[in-house]
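Quick one: structure tokens for this chain, please?
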Amino acid sequence: MEWYENEQFWRDLYPYMFPKERIRNALEEVEKILGMVDMKEGHVLDMATGPGRHAVRFAKKGFTVTGVDKSPFLLEHARALAKEEEAVVEWVEADMREFCRKDTFDLALNLFSSFGFFDNEEEDFLVLQNLFASLRKGGIIVMDTVGKEILARNFKQTISHRYEDGALLVNRHEIVDEWRRIRNEWVLVKDGDVREYTFHFRCYSAKELLMLLERAGFRQTEVFGSLDMSPYDEKAKRLVVTARKP
């Protein structure tokens, strides 16, 4: 079983990965994305939707939305959020390497560092191929992740945080495979119980990600340092990339 297939991973860490504030912030993030792509209607694909926080906000704005995720647990939260917000979203349980609906969507999203999960770079490329095929002509993709440049600038081997519920989460990080991947060990201490999870993902520089997108067929690529469309420079907080299907 790969780490992203472990439902207990998502169950145990959900409160700390998706606190209520992060769910609320999705509204502002969606507004910023719409400003980037200059779009007021259409079909949206939210790939690796997680608890559906962005998918629901797009649906509330009148878009036709499909949210895809491999985790049944995360999709349960997504459905609950949609019900609470009275939003209509199509939820699909599927692997991002397999989901593809040709010429269907106007906008494809891959947000919150939901890319690079797989050991083989060709599998990441397959995800981009599927997204490219799923977009209509002129459709746009928006990706948001942590760039390799940002990781190098801010890298800390160990960080920890104490939460209001008394939990202590210790994160240990290690760069492996000559900066191709980052290995993470998360240790959750709560109510006298200690649980450890190890996971890794492939990290991309801006240039590497752009090359992969262009190889998949995308054109008109742009790079930003946040959803605010700030420059991707030494102050960048995120690696945000947009690209179009010609």
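The mean pLDDT is 97.
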